[in-house]
From TrEMBL:
Keywords for the protein's UniProt record, in alphabetical order: Cytoplasm, Methyltransferase, rRNA processing, S-adenosyl-L-methionine, Transferase
A GO cellular component entry from the record: cytoplasm
Protein name: Ribosomal RNA small subunit methyltransferase H
InterPro entries documented for this protein: RsmH, SAM-dep_MeTrfase_MraW_recog, SAM-dependent_MTases_sf
UniProt keyword Transcription present: no
Organism taxonomic ancestry: Bacteria, Bacillati, Actinomycetota, Actinomycetes, Micrococcales
A matching Pfam family: Methyltransf_5
GO molecular function: rRNA (cytosine-N4-)-methyltransferase activity
Basic and acidic residues: bias regions: 315-330
EC number in record: 2.1.1.199
One Gene Ontology biological process: rRNA base methylation
Membrane-crossing residue ranges in chain numbering: none
Amino acid sequence: MPEQATDDAASRHVPVLLARCLELLAPALAEPGSVMVDSTLGMGGHTEGVLRAFPHVRVVGLDRDPQALELAGRRLAPFGDRFTPVHAIYDEIGDVLDDLGIGHVQGVLMDLGVSSLQLDEVERGFSYAKDAPLDMRMDSTTGQTAADVLNTYDQRAIARILREYGEERFAPRIARAVVAARAVRPLTRTAELVDLVRASIPAVARQTGGHPAKRTFQALRIEVNGELEVLERAVPASIEALAVGGRIVVEAYQSLEDRIVKRAFAAGATSSAPPDLPVEPATHTPYLRLVTRGAEEADAEELARNPRSQSVRLRAAERLRPTPDHMRDRKTPRRAA
């Protein structure tokens, strides 16, 4: 990796809604010995903010991207053993904490989607603005690439991915064009895909909604990295990792992610008692309290400072009590007390 890529994390990355995240986490991180998990470490901006704001807090930083871990590790080295980097995907939070001998934590922060590092490294293939290999893996050491998806999935599967993950209304046209093109030669470059998408979308539709390939690239990235399936597991696992009084803060950047977070939070913040009971049994009271009213967005000041905050949707919740067995996601192991 070029030396510059590991030494200028702070200048390359402005963490989204950092002040608001710190404000929401503060009550949970007030006590000495508090531990927070930064589930999406990236270039370490949020973690650095937490370590500076709360000198008594330890942060465990997870990331599936080895390059991000190396870069953030250098940035956060001055904090010594208050920072622990771990190569892991965030749905593995329970296993990570078990390996570290940590029972429950006081905070969890999740900043979802593609990171600044991945967008800025052209050769990773996340950007439709510059030609690069069709990769899009967040962990470039393992798994299928975007080229694998485009060259091996059948037309119906490609159309489904573009429609469901990219909300692309011209998904069938694009999928048909991909299959026709790969019959001549395999797709290997992002520029080839951009040209195919542009040619598949009617000219009048290309005049609005931003870059015509934006939705296709989002859909492929989600498929390559299994992002929604991982998030479906990660949110309940993160809630189970929280101590009573602990808080989870999640920043999502597209509606599919935000919907998963909203659903998990709402399930925990809603009584499970039948609505016609005169008295709510204690075993049916909510185990979460919503800290934000709906999803918060970036204000004008934040947008001016950090354009990448434009689509952020921030939600936060606080754990009120352990999750009752009848309200717990059966696929998520209960953590030891």
